[in-house]
Amino acid sequence: MFDSLSNRLGDVFGKLRGRGALTEADVRAAMREVRIALLEADVALPVVRSFVDQVTELAVGQNVLRSVTPGQQVVKIVSDALTEMLGSEAAELDLAVTPPAVVMMVGLQGSGKTTTTAKIAKRLKDKERKKVLMASLDVNRPAAQEQLAVLGSQIDVATLPIIAGQQPVEIAQRAMQAAKLQGFDVLMLDTAGRLHVDQQLMDEMQAVSRTANPAETLLVVDSLTGQDAVQVAQRFTEQVPLTGVVLTRMDGDARGGAALSMRAVTGKPIKFAGTGEKLDGLEVFQPSRIAGRILGMGDVVSLVERAAETIQAEEAEAMAKKMAKGQFDLDDLRTQLNQMRRMGGLGALAGMIPGLKKAQAAMAQSGTDDKVLVHFDAIMGSMTPKERAKPEIINAKRKIRIANGSGTTVQQVNKVLKMHQEMSTAMKKIRKMGGLKGLGALLG
Ligand code: GDP
User: Fold this and answer.
1) How does the UniProt record describe the way this protein sits in the membrane (predicted)?
2) CA–CA separation, 164 vs 175, rounded Å?
């Protein structure tokens, strides 16, 4: 799911992030590509339009284009908008009513309704210790009621005994009575499906809904059916008071448009995603996690968030300018190391910046961990301003003084000097690669 969309967007944003500065035209061009990528993923046109408009408006703002990392800021805006499009917060079942809480399952035949009924029942039983009763109201398909009974015995959840010849509303009434008398917490009603939406089906569901007054009415749709799934959802939304949607077959290789359009079209949250034929193949639908998966860069998003909190933009900009000129003294190194510390240390950063993992492994080998950063700061604090500006004047005698002053050793002082030297060399290389643009390329 989402693979090709994820690849397409990865290309678009890879290009954006590879550049130091962005113009409004760059952002608009990228948004045109985002638009095409979403349409190709089968996202409904009105949804794509409002998404792209919203993101473009935010992304061409001066705060973004003038920032130090405009490309990443744009990605962050897209990620936020995508999360919002998917529903922002995960929405769980709301069963806080006088028991039995009725969960009514609706949807087309073959959407995975019966399987999902059993999956949710299993989840309520295992995770929330609820006593669940299931009943099939499908009197059209001969084996439907038996199918649910078989699933029930597999997951050890009770099903309503079958009485031949009863109509859906009658079965619903009998199920409610049984659930009340026998002290069930939750009653799951698996309604009949059809191949297409028709009025008779809608009438039947409305009648059942009036009888059972469900706490939750969940529409089950097959995500593999793409745009059709969205249309089906729209029809159901108009006729039945839905409280949520379950998207099945999210384990398949659908392009993902159904998932992305569903919230906007129905106005209802996607509560669960079906992720397999097995009865534990059900996940709570987490918008931010799905958005992260689509963008393939959820970690960069949290990195930008953290950087924005900890680094003064001007401080970073001034540093970037100095680096670009190849001027980099021990004061700069000190500022840099402190920034790293404020951003959660080397470990946190390494997980977030592509390519930094290797650097971190090397640092770990040379014994550079977060504690060492504290020592380094003390060492540089014991130097005179002159020494920090011109490290080459630090001779053996000065090294001993610095080590004593900072409570460290001459070896550790040497390490700081070596690190500074290595970073200056790296800076010079970056300058040769084209200054800030080169730095951008190096960072991803
Ligand atoms: P119903 O007619 O809507 O009740 O559909 P069923 O529950 O009988 O499901 C139809 C088929 O889809 C069955 O073979 C299920 O095993 C399969 N199925 C249901 N949900 C999922 C899912 O999330 N992933 C996959 N791969 N298969 C599913």
Assistant:
1) Peripheral membrane protein
2) 14
Q: From residue 414, how far is each of 193, 345, 380, 421 by CA, in Å?
A: 75, 22, 11, 10
| Tokens, residue 320 | 């970037």
Q: How far is CA 117 from the centre of its chain?
A: 26
Q: Report residue 11 as tokens.
A: 């290309």
Half-sphere exposure of 169 (CA within 13 A, CB side): 10
Residue 394 lies in a domain: yes
More reliable by pLDDT, 362 or 90: 90
Q: Is 306 contained in some domain?
A: no
Give me ligand 1 centre to Cα 7, in Å: 28
Burial 23-50 (b: 16+ CB within 10 A, else e): eeebbeebbebbbebbeebbbbeebbee
pLDDT in tens, 261-315: 888 888 899 999 998 999 988 988 888 878 877 876 544 444 555 555 555 555 6
Are 234 and 278 in the same domain? yes
Question: Any known ligand binding at 248?
Answer: yes
Range of the domain at 40: 3-88
Residue among 180, 181, 186 nearest 127 (CA): 186
The answer on whether 152 is annotated among ligand-binding residues is: no
| 277 within ligand 1 shell (Cβ under 6 A) | yes
From the CB of 292, is ligand 1 less than 6 Å away?
A: no
Nearest CA to ligand 1 atom 13: 112
Report the interhelical angle of 287-295 vs 298-310 (nearest 10°). 100
Torsion angles phi and psi, residue 283, rounded to 5: -125, 145
Pairing of strands 186-190, 282-284: unpaired
- Contact, 160 vs 172, CB < 8 A? no
**Could you tell me if the CB of 109 is within 6 A of ligand 1?**
yes
Query: Quick one: 131 and 169 in the same domain?
Result: yes
